[in-house]
Amino acid sequence: MSEHSPMDSREPLLRIAKRDALPFWKNWAIRLAAVVLALLVCAVVVYATVKLSPLKVYAAMWSGAFGTVRRSWVTVRDAMLLLCVGIGLAPAFKMRFWNIGAEGQILIGGIVTAACMIYWGNSMPTSLLLVVMFLVSALAGAVWGFIPAFFRARWNTNETLFTLMMNYVAIQLTSFFVSKWEHPIGSNSVGIINIDTRAGWFPTLFGQQYALNVIIVLCLTLFVFFYLRSSKHGYEIAVVGESERTAQYIGLNVKTIVMRTMLLSGAICGVSGFIAVSGVSHTISTVTANGRGFTAIIVAWLAKFNAFVMVLISFLIVFLERGASEIASQFNLSEYAAKILTGIILFFIIGSEFFINYRIILRGRKEKKSSCSK
Amino acid sequence: MQQIISLLQSSIWFGTVILYGAMGEILTEKGGNLNLGVPGIMSLGAIGGLIGSFFYETRVEEPSAAICLLVTLLCALGLSLFGGLIYSFLTITLRANQNVTGLTLTIFGCGIANFYGSSLNTLAGGVGQISLPVTSAAFRAVLPGLKNTPILNTLGWLVYLSIAIAVILWYFLSRTRTGLNLRAVGENAATADAAGINVTRYKYLAICVGCAISGLGGLYYTMDYIKGTWTSGGSLEALGWLSVALVIFARWKPIHAIWGSYLFGVLNWLYFYFADLLGLVGISVTMTRSSQEIFKMLPYVVTILVLIFVSFRRKREDQPPAGLGLPYFREER
Amino acid sequence: MQGITKRFGQVIANDNVSLEIRRGEILALLGENGSGKTTLMNMLSGIYAPDGGQIFIDGNEVTIRSPREAFDLGIGMIHQHFKLVDVLTAAENIILGLKEPGRLNLDAVAKRVREICEAYGFDVDPQQKIYNMSVSQKQTVEIVKVLYRGVDILILDEPTAVLTPQETDRLFAVLRNMKKDGKAVVIITHKLPEVMAVSDRVAVLRKGHNIGCVKTSETTQQELVNMMVGHATTLDISRAQPKNPQPRITVTDLTCVDKDGVKRLDKVSFVANSGEILGIAGIAGSGQRELLESIAGLCPVQSGSIVYTPEEGGEQNLLGMDPLAIKNAGIAMAFVPEDRLGMGLVGSMGMTGNMMLRSWREGKGPFVDRKHPQELAKQLWKLLEIATPGTEYPVRRLSGGNVQKILVGREIASSPSVLMMAYAVRGLDINTSYVIYDLLNEQKDKGVAVIYVGEDLDVLLELCDRILVLCGGQVSGIVDARTATREQVGLLMTQIRKEGEQHE
Question: pTM of this prediction?
């Protein structure tokens, strides 16, 4: 019965227990520590493979992302695009609907945008065309998102796998249209659409080429933030995400909400396709989405669907990609190095969530809050 | 006739890549983990094998086929196992979300493969310049006695190994104690735990062995399917996703995965032979490139239809493992 | 077990508990719900790890880190929620996790299972899949599973909750046989008559403490109750005469069929009056849940009618309405479901968020109003003395009693005209239970039609005005609670079992 007897040595060395909520700053301290550690690991990897001084590499990365005004704008542009997809995914994910199909929804939005530019570029003023493209791309993305949502609502078809397959259908559709709109013939690409007239291109605002991208995405971000936090729809999504039984109990039609939310989610992803085509690349190809649909899932998940945290994470990821492509060209490496570094850093951030939600109790230690860092 | 034979050949080549990927994923999913990192794992296996054989074959004067095989296999298995360990550590020990971890693994794995793949290309003097005659030939060796049989004379031994693994997997899952326990883990981890099954160990093993099998798919891809070369780009990644699709198509049954993989192969290559095949029965069609692209949609569309059909029928035995995607923590309450 | 302590977050489930389990003896572990009985036994069977204390088996100190280690030590536990894999067969479930030598031979397993069944008089088909089984069949599989493993120490967590009296008797006979075999049996329960009937010794837990251990032959039910609750309480629930009862809900020939085509309700007819508490009794799974859910519009009805008669007269058929339609029709229906956190509340939200479940639609415009729900939350917090750090603290982390107070408080706050409650006091301590009874009586006084599904017959008999007894989805009788006896109701509960044997 002695209270302080040393614990039996056969007790497991580590035990894991759920943690009560941590203070805000500690959450972020853990995440920051994870990023720092990840950068260290990346440095080792970089040094081991290419024998370059990691510091030099990081400096090069920084200059690649923010070295000049032009580069900073490119970073902002890419971050906005990623953010836009993340924003689109957030409502679906909050509802616990695994929309892995953003990639396809972006492409579908991109296809219709390109179609508008090609067919109406000369018959419509750009300002009107932009509005039309915005609406049409949103509609197209919404339809693409709606299909799996309908089957999930109706027959509980697994949405993770369904949306995943829809990506590849969309990719093939893109290839189909690329070969239809091929220009010049034989190039197997659409080329820059309306390169002379710039019809349907985002206009330069305030002297900045990408100002409109930022404006649209930030508006959408604000919209989604308040939609999820203070609207009735947002509350419904939260309830459905937590428990479908509870949702039925208070008279919510879960099927309607699932379909409605996926319409919204798909629409925003479709709009990202519009921005990608009309505001960034001015062309359409199977790599228009370039994996953003998948990366954005990670963005939305890590941010716990908080729209503003997503801004931060989007910038982090894009910074890595831009920086890595800079080192690639500067040190004559493959640009895929960016993906490796991104992967390592994401692994660490994903892993750090564990230390936010759980605590580890060492053998012999009683209920002391062991501070843990990875 | 010739068209049909070459269609079947291409389909089996193609099917074997995704059969490996799908079998690894079946094993993983039977343990209750949805690993969306299959494309990454297959890429890791592919590049692992390629690096191993590249350095052995270019550094040694007279490379022996046996050592080529051994080195390549070890490197491929080792690297895909490494990917599996990352995934299992994060999802099991650290209880991270499986979908997010899997997707990250895909980014990471494809990144590594493409990075080192293009480095190898550079070392070899340009894209498509990697030449591994001994290793590739060793992997594409046709079984003795089949040299003159049509179709079979073009299949390397890895094709037969994949069928063998599928049968073993089927036997393991349905006829052995360990397989039964693993299925219980995937269906209901808490129950398995209460029955005295070490859930953590089973999940780790299922994922790691599963990743090793998937990794073989990558190896088959580089050594046999594209004959010992490397092209950076998304084609292996696309095959990885198709493996995930095949798991659904086969309804988590390894035996169904065998014919399913070849069917996927047929669907995938149909665009190439479609016009010729119709020509055989007297119908003349010209396939434009754009209509070919529509044809390539088929495997995915078929998978979606199967998915809908399965959910529509609600037969218990056809459903995904009940615990798929759910983390397990004994003291959760 | 010595000095066992277990905490969950801020809650101490077991505080320095010591307990002795002997061979050849049936020990009853008695205590109210939430007194830490199950937690204590979970530590013995390796589900939880204790935060402090030691466990000795045959004089040797042991550490039980996992259920497997518990099995190796000969400890087997049958949980309240069955731990069976649905898509596997009985035989497969029975050998799950076993390390027997040799290849897997399911035929041999089936043979041994049949032997065990014959020896004890069970009836299990080893080839049957679990998802095709009834509750009592599942329990039988669980017991056979433990016997198959040849355990020395058998722990049963509330085994009789889902059984008919006959099945209970059969179970007790098996337990006595095991005792004769020299095995140690622990039965967790809160039903006193069962304790008296089957056990040799009784250990009583209260709020995580071991209050004492007595020989069953040397004690009385009254003494045990005193130990359980701390002070003697006869169930002294106040009950007023119903004031001016008027039909409020009239159910006629209600029939429900579930997804698998099994009839859950079979031509159920009754009237629930205003100002009256209508009790619903029955063995678990006799259609209670379906009955309440079909009135609340949550369960599809095959045939029959549900008519609501408001105070001011008129009639309204509720059939085919979902909860939203019922609300829009101006009917204030309150429903406290059995599954509180899974259905009645959202676990990750705080009190405010949960108050909003009933009020979020109010107000125009697309935005929700958080202010009023928050005020309501604060009121309830004070009024019902809910122990929570704040109105935004996730309700999942609160104890069962506080969760129920929040749920009941919210439902009553909507000033309902019909109040339905399923197992309202399950898992609650005595004091909270009385708070709930008082709230119910208060509603009854206000002229609300109260429908109360209960499991404790004594409570039903003392609280309700009339009791409707369900058996196999049919109404086997409606009795006056003031004159009916336990035996009478108990008989009705099991009456139509004969032809409905395959029914769950």
Answer: 0.81
